[in-house]
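Schema walkthrough. Field components (list of strings):
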Amino acid sequence: MTASMFGIWAIKAAILIVILLTGFAYATYYERKAIARIQVRIGPNRAGPKGLLQPVADGVKLIFKEEFIPARADKVLFTLAPILTVIPAFLLGAVVPWGGEVPFFGGTARLYLADINVATLYVMAVGSLAVYGIVLAGWSSNNKYSLLGGLRSAAQMISYELAMGLALVGPILIAGSMSLVKIVEAQKSVWFIVYQPLAFIVFLMAAFAEVNRPPFDLPEAEQELTGGYHTEYSGMRFALFFMAEYIKVVVMSAIIAALFLGGYYGPGVETYPWLGPVYMFLKILVMVFFAIWTRATLPRFRYDRLMAFGWKVLFPLALLNVFLTAIGIVLLGG
Amino acid sequence: MLEPIEVSAEELQHLVSDRALKGETVLLNMGPQHPSTHGVLRLLVELDGEIVVNVVPDIGFLHTGVEKNMEAKRYWQAEVMTDRLDYLNPVGNNLAYCLAVEALTGLEVPPRAQAIRVILAELQRISSHLVWLGTHLLDLGASSLFLYTFREREYILDIFEMVSGARMMTTYIRPGGLWRDVPEGFTEAVLNFVRMFPRRLKQYEALVTKNPIYKDRTRQIGVLSKEDAMRWGVTGPMLRASGVAYDTRKARPYCGYDRYDFDIPVEETGDVYARYLVRVEEMRQSLRIIAQAVDNLPSGPVRSDDRRYMPPAREEIGRNMEALIRHFKFWTEGFAPPKGSAYAAVESPRGTLAAFIESDGTPRPYRVHMRTPSFANLQALPVMAKGALIADLVAIVGSVDIVLGDVDR
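Field assembly_structure (string):
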């Protein structure tokens, strides 16, 4: 490993973090605008033209807010929990192929930070780490609502993780690799959503549960638990939870796009490689919109029903999908 | 000066089970500041995990002393207090009070005023059910419907503003009739609403009625049996959802409700879903009543001309000295109904709302009691919520459709 390679990595990582942070800020703007449209409202329109500076205003506000710690909270864990939640969200972004090889100042550049040969495993492993943050936040707040939220989060995780992992197996079997880059490259001609509609649906629902989006936002459940695990959080600590949720929405949309929607492929990418990230961006927009739309439409699941749904519906479906995919590959010879 | 009452822990032990005293269950205070308690209701919830072992509603945070206050006011002043009871049903509250005063004094209400009262009361029922539908779905985590129902409610509030100048605290219905006749354009506005609303209602139902998550969250949740419903004095849509076809509009018709053709929706299951179905159907039936009332709106005066209890007409005051004196004396002294008591009940969106007035022959009521439906309906909450989950508790509280102003008075 040479110093220059390290330097390139560092630069890429810095760019990725900036993109994700902007993506987070404007995902909130996008959500507020889209939901406002669905709910016959206008949405933010005061800060800047068409409210475009609203995320900045929100950020500034949150930075200047008092960071309150409840009297008998566990101060160390209370501070650690939001950090534990937000870091995995960033880490997830590392393996997502945002684009292919593109010409860059005479040389070529790869538009992804890392091409790990077990990227899908990495997604599962890092993605589930965030649950610790939420459980610890619930525990350390010394608030019964928060505790219930944290417990719900743990129960939720064990009910969707298995189905999520199994849904990944389909694309892996077809692509013959666990690397996200290889999986995307295998979709050059046909998107995996065509071969794997079932896996797509299962993964989509599990991903909603993973990022705590409605209708699976049980750990938060404002109307029941008054905010759940982040009831006692304020200021930047709260913003970190918020950041984690939205970055995960963006990254999970990117991962779904990479697994099932052909990643950065689209018409004309071979000739103009810079179109890749544009296609990726559009696909992410569509997936994020789907998440917003669901939030505006559906009531929340009940906590025990989500567990039943995960184990009795999603898990058998995912298993069936693995079975069918394997048979198909054997019969058609891969 | 009132001394604070000392309450020891032993005196409160009966509110919780033995398991709570041993620390096996958790006591959770839901409210008075909580997003889903619809105001300032406090629920002392005993939890085993997420399972509700017991609920004790603690009310009184919105107590405004309305009934006591009314004793210090003249009859026409006291009516203004009733607007503030159930702030989603001010027209109905006015109506109950006015009917009681009319029963006390024997005032006759002209047919045009009767019909307009019916139109407004039914519009109020729709607007109240709209607020209920929106907030109920909001409790379950579906936020959009809330804004849609408030869009339609706005239309009804505009009609109220049109007739009375106020959007909520209208005091438009007065003893002996109405404040004054409806302005031009009233029937058109109401008919517009009648034409527009069924389509919107269909849209809501498309979002909710067959939604599997909604069904999952509400079916077999918060079941209240027929017997329990009657035992706890539950009225209104909750009672009808439990299979009892009791509606004050049919059982003790007032304002000529017996002349209108409408059905009482009844469901048998007594769960949250049944209450939803009953309320949605009630909105349809209210529309039917409104359409009939507007079509057959009689012309004529909107106030009784009984000089003992009514102020003289505006145009008379300029021409007639006696009328001017009478006007002055009426608004300064008020009117004194004969000694006795009167009771009048109406069907509010939440159930049987009744006013009881005891008169001692002076211009101020000796005692006014409002029988408010939310208070009785809320009593049944522990019966419905035992054994449910926290998420269900929120759905059940929402399905009771309490208005804390109505509970605490």
